[in-house]
Amino acid sequence: MGKQFDAMLPQHEAFIRQQHIFFVGSAPLSEEGHVNISPKGHDSFAILSPNRVAYLDLTGSGNETSAHLDENGRVTIMFCAFEGAPNILRLYGIGTVVLPGSAEWDALYPLFAPIPGARQIIDIEVHKVQTSCGYSIPFMSYEGERDTLQRWAALKGEEGLKEYRKEKNSKSIDGMPTPLSQLL
């Protein structure tokens, strides 16, 4: 049976810092809209307080989370132990999209290592933390980060990334606008 907490405890924070991947879940309010789950890697996650986290969001083929957060704010972050003791940890919260050029961006961006292709920061107020057993999660070994996205973004350059984001990241697959579309 899972255990629930109102905030991250030190052992939760330690577990999160050991993980190499996390998953982001979001959904629009519409019943016809698509639920989205995105895997995230690199050193792109920051714990800001026991009830606040953020991650540096990189350019990708879609921008679903951004559109969903702009509409309703609901987001879940999930971490799974693929090495060591079994564990699953979920952070439930309300997220906001922080865009380059804003005061919030200027405050948060220095917390992350610069990664080519960074497009926005997702800032989350956590209202519930849940742990569960993770007994069925397989063991997998970490070999390292892929550099494919970073090389691709560097080759695109800022103008190329702007054009790509305009084409692929300004609307969700359900046609919802993303906050990023304001910059494009």
Give structural notes.
- The structure is a single chain.
- The protein is globular and about 45 Å long.
- The protein contains four helices and eight strands, in the order βαββββαββαβα.
- It is α+β, with helices and mostly antiparallel strands and 184 residues long.
- The chain has a single domain, classed as Pnp Oxidase, Chain A (Roll).
- Helices cover 24% and strands 32% of the residues.
- A hairpin with a 2-residue loop joins β4 and β5.
- The mean pLDDT is 97.
How would you concisely characterize the structure shown here?
By secondary structure, this protein is of the alpha+beta class. Helices cover 24% and strands 32% of the residues. The chain has a single domain, classed as Pnp Oxidase, Chain A, CATH 2.30.110.10.
Structural key phrases:
single chain; 184 residues; globular; Pnp Oxidase, Chain A; alpha+beta; eight-stranded antiparallel β-sheet; 32% strand
> Whole-Å distance between the termini?
46 Å
Beta-strand share of residues: 25-35%
Secondary-structure content class: alpha+beta
Mean pLDDT: 97
The number of helices is 4
Instruction: Report the strand count.
Output: 8
Q: How would you describe the shape? A: globular
Spell out the helices and strands N to C: EHEEEEHEEHEH
Biggest sheet features: 8 strands, antiparallel
What is the C-alpha radius of gyration, as a whole number of Å?
16 Å
Q: Residue ranges: pLDDT <50 for 5 or more in a row?
A: none
CATH superfamily: Electron Transport, Fmn-binding Protein, Chain A
CATH topology: Pnp Oxidase, Chain A
Number of domains: 1
**Quaternary organisation:** single chain
Q: What is the CATH-assigned architecture?
A: Roll
Helix percent reads: 10-25%
Provide the CATH top-level class: Mainly Beta
